[in-house]
Structures are given as C-alpha cells and as structure tokens.
Amino acid sequence: MANNSTDLPVFDTSVPRADDVTDATKEMVSEMASAADYFELLKPRVMSLVVFTTLIGMIMAPTGADGGVHPVVAFTALLLIALGAGASGALNMWYDADIDANMERTRTRPIPSGRVSKDSALGFGLTLSAGSVMCLGVFVNWLSAGLLAFTIFFYAVVYTVWLKRHTAQNIVIGGAAGAFPPVVGWAAATGTVDVLPVLMFAIIFFWTPPHFWALALLKNKDYTENNIPMMPVVAGSKNTRFQILAYSLVMAGFAALPALLGHAGLFYALFSIALSAVFVAMSFWLFIAPDARQVAASKALFAYSILYLFLLFAGFPADKLIGI
Asked: Do residue 156 and residue 209 come from a single domain?
C-alpha cells in the first residue's frame, strides 16, 4: 500500500518565508488579534471531527452498575479534549506559518495574514495544551489525560515538526494523531481502553490517507512549490490514486470488524458495508478516471470521505439504540 522506499527524494525543507509580518508590525499584530482569530488557530473544522469521534467513544463505553459517567464529567472531558486538539492545531499553525503564507489554501490563516503573531500563537498553544491535559487529569482521570498529552505531542511534534517536511509517509504515520480521540473519549468514561475504541482508532487511521491524499491531489502544485513531500509530489498522481484505492479497501475491512467481532450488531454491519462500498467505488473511479475527470473525482472523494466518517461513527450509537 504505502510507498515504503527508503530512498525517497531528499527535500529542501526550508521554505521561502513571506514578509507579510515584519518585526516592525509585531506590536500591531498583537493589538489586532481578536477572539475569532484565536479560535481559528484551533482549527475548528478539524476540532468538530475530534469532538464527534470523542463523543462516540464516550457513548459506546460500557455504563456499569452506577449508570456510567456523570453528565457534568462527560461534558468537562469533551470540552478539555476538544481544547487539547485545538491546542495542537495552534502549535501546527505556529510551526507551519512559513508554509501557510505561501499556499493558497492557508495564506489567510491568522499568522500568515498578520492577525496573530507567531509568539502569541505559540504561547496560546502551549498554555492550552498544558491546561487541558492537567485539568483532564484532575477532573476526569489520568489515563485519558496521558492519552491526550500523547496525542498533542504526536500531532505537534512527530507529525508537524518531523514527518510533514521529511517523508511521504507523513500522513500515513501522522494519521495516528487524528485517530486517538475515540480512545481518549472511552478512557475518559471508563478509565480503561478496550477492543472497540482500538477498532475505532484503526478505522480513522486507515481513513486518513485516502481522505487527505484526495485533497493533496488537488493541491499538488502548492505542495510541490513549498517542498512538502506529500505522496502526489513524491510518487506521482497514478501511484497516489492506486494507494488511495488500496487504503480504502483496508479501511472498509476495519470498518466491518466491530460487527464481525461482536462489538456491533446487524444494523451497523449493513450500514458500514453500504457506506464503505460507496467509498471504495469512488476510490476506484478516481483510480481509473481519465485526466479530464480526475479533479472532479478527487473533489467528490474528499467531500464524501468527511461525510463517510461522520455517518459511520453515528452508526455505532444508532446500532446500540436499535439493538439488532
């Protein structure tokens, strides 16, 4: 599936820095920043997926004799996990400000656009990271806090600092960061980790490459110009499209495992098969699509991949409610 070649092209990871924010404007930047700008640093669209998958992990956790986690504790855990995820997003934007300034998709973000200074973003991200982890440990439990701390570290350091600029496997390995939330949610509710949240982790882990590579195909020019070794840059469009299809098939298999292993019922089994069949079919169409249709096929797969994950995870509590 993945391009495991150890002799990947060597990329110059230095990126031309935009001069939108100079030393002379740093004081102005700090005064211009609004609450909305800092909220944007948290990557709210990504955070929404984190919140949702965390919530599903909490809902699917066993309730026990005492009726499960208290609603106030559950809300506190959900809020703190969301803030931790947002903090890692802020740290990502701080480190990647040079890249973001030169990419069409990201140049309007708070730092490259000059609305928030890099120092302020760094302080904001570090404060939220430490605060969310410590509060989760004190008010919920330390297992979930430890998992949240590892998730933040993995995204902000392992993926952002190390993987993203140095290997085409950045999304494959780095996808683990986005796969942890249901595990953290389950741990927050129970103080343990079990098979089902691990399966949820695997689903998101194998979903991430086809999801992100569909976008990378569309933004290949930006990644090439900024020396970011995303798979389309390193392996080319055809190889990337093949790997999208391969990972989609593996993802579909893991999506079916909760039902096959007895952690979900018939409704989830049929629902997941139907959703995955569409995902695989769209991946196959992207693989065989003529050049004139590849942009449309990439856009369609990227949009569907987001809907797929939300619907698939919604299928877990729906299956539990239906009880068949």
From this structure: no
Question: Which residues form the domain of 101?
Answer: 30-193
Structure tokens at 23: 């030393």
pLDDT tens for 51-63 read: 999 999 999 998 7
Q: Is residue 118 part of a domain?
A: yes
Long-range contacts of 270-275, Cβ-Cβ distance < 8 Å, separation of 24 or more? 271/311, 271/312, 271/315, 271/318, 271/319, 272/312, 272/315, 275/308, 275/311, 275/312, 275/315
pLDDT, tens only, 32-83: 679 999 999 999 999 999 999 999 999 999 876 555 678 999 999 999 999 9
Closest CA to 176 of 236, 88, 45: 88
Considering the domain architecture, whether residues 84 and 186 belong to the same structural domain is answered as: yes
Dihedral sign of CA atoms 278, 173, 108, 223 in order: negative
Closest CA to 140 of 204, 65, 79: 79
Is 260 in the same domain as 133? no
Q: What pTM did the predictor assign?
A: 0.89
Number of H-type helices and E-type strands within the chain: 15, 0
Domains identified in the chain, total number = 2
Last residue of a domain, one of 144, 177, 193: 193
CB atoms within 10 A of CB 319: 23
Q: For residue 177, which of 200, 148, 198, 197 has the smallest C-alpha distance?
A: 148
Q: What gap in Å lies between CA 166 and CA 170, rounded to an integer?
A: 8
Contact call for residues 54 and 82 (beta carbons, < 8 A): yes
